[in-house]
Design brief:
Helix content: 10-25%
Strand order of the largest sheet: 1-2
Low-confidence stretches: none
Strand content: 15-25%
Largest sheet: 2 strands, antiparallel
Protein name: Replication terminator protein
Distance between the termini: 97 Å
Number of helices: 3
Number of strands: 6
Organism: Anaerocolumna chitinilytica
Radius of gyration: 36 Å
Structural class: alpha+beta
Shape: elongated
Length: about 160
């Protein structure tokens, strides 16, 4: 009996179906919305239907992948009834009080400097090499001081 090359079987369709199933499994494994340790499975089913004379066998091949389902999303709602209007009110619960400042809302000095528009740069002095703003048009230039300070003597 001659061996069958699965790469060439059914004109290469079997290898193509298996490769597609492997792609689906690897994408599912990398999906952060699925459980990492869930088992995935690829099943190849060959169904053979022989004729009455047993000289011809119709064969169907089915390749199925069993993937991990997406995880659900959990949240919580706070609800209550307005006693003046008798309407039910609900909001998604979060640890952040509405209108309260969050630590991510605080901008660094460099982020604040980038928010100035071109008109702000024209109103104030602006050093393009450092991105620094000055209250006057020209930055204060310090004269070099060539005095050497002996830090050992300063004890």
């Amino acid at each position: 009996m001659e061996k069958i090359n699965l790469e060439d079987f059914a004109g290469g369709a079997l290898a193509e179906k298996i490769n597609q199933a492997l792609r689906e499994v690897t994408e599912n494994v990398q999906d952060p919305n699925t459980k990492a340790t869930a088992k995935r499975k690829i099943t190849c089913t060959f169904t053979f239907s022989p004729s009455e004379q047993r000289d011809l066998v119709a064969t169907s091949i089915d390749v199925k992948s069993t993937l991990a389902p997406s995880m659900g999303i959990a949240t919580a709602f706070v609800m209550g009834k307005d006693i003046t209007t008798n309407e039910v009110d609900y909001r998604e619960y979060s640890k952040q009080v509405k209108g309260q400042m969050n630590i991510q809302d605080i901008k660094t000095e460099s982020e604040q400097a980038h928010e100035f528009t071109g008109s702000d740069r024209q109103k104030k002095g602006y050093d393009q090499s450092t991105g620094e703003f000055f209250d006057t048009e020209e930055p204060e230039v310090l004269e070099p001081n060539n005095k050497v300070v002996d830090l050992r003597a300063a004890r």
